[in-house]
């Protein structure tokens, strides 16, 4: 990890490095200027949203793009790529993907998917009395080393 005193020093260092970055895969030039863009600028200058809307790329590719410009990587367990949990039906023998009820309401966070969960987290937040710790809805971040390692131990290896 590097800590530079100012943006000008960052720019000088970047211009000494070979051109790398998210590049042409995401509709961006592989240039030093691209390397200096913020995540918001990368998203704005990319054509990935349009490609996704036109169904030219998969949901996976679009989510990987979002994870990449957000700084997430397979090389850091604390910044591992995240994907939304979208299914709700885990009991049927077969899953009909044309039935809307089989999918989660993505307008709500996981903690508010049912009224009882929403009430639980809201009650904890509103009744919080600790003066040293600010009130919170959720006690942990959704992507931690422990969660990532637990998932990686259970998933089938890419090389399998």
Automatic annotation (TrEMBL):
One example GO MF annotation: protein kinase binding
InterPro entries linked to this entry: BEACH_dom, BEACH_dom_sf, BEACH_Domain
SUPFAM superfamilies assigned to the protein according to its UniProt record, in alphabetical order: BEACH domain
Domain BEACH: from-to ranges: 37-160
Gene3D superfamilies with a match to the protein in the record: BEACH domain
Domain of life according to the entry: Eukaryota
The protein, known as: Beige/BEACH domain protein
Annotated organism of origin: Ancylostoma duodenale
Phylogenetic classification of the source organism: Eukaryota, Metazoa, Ecdysozoa, Nematoda, Chromadorea
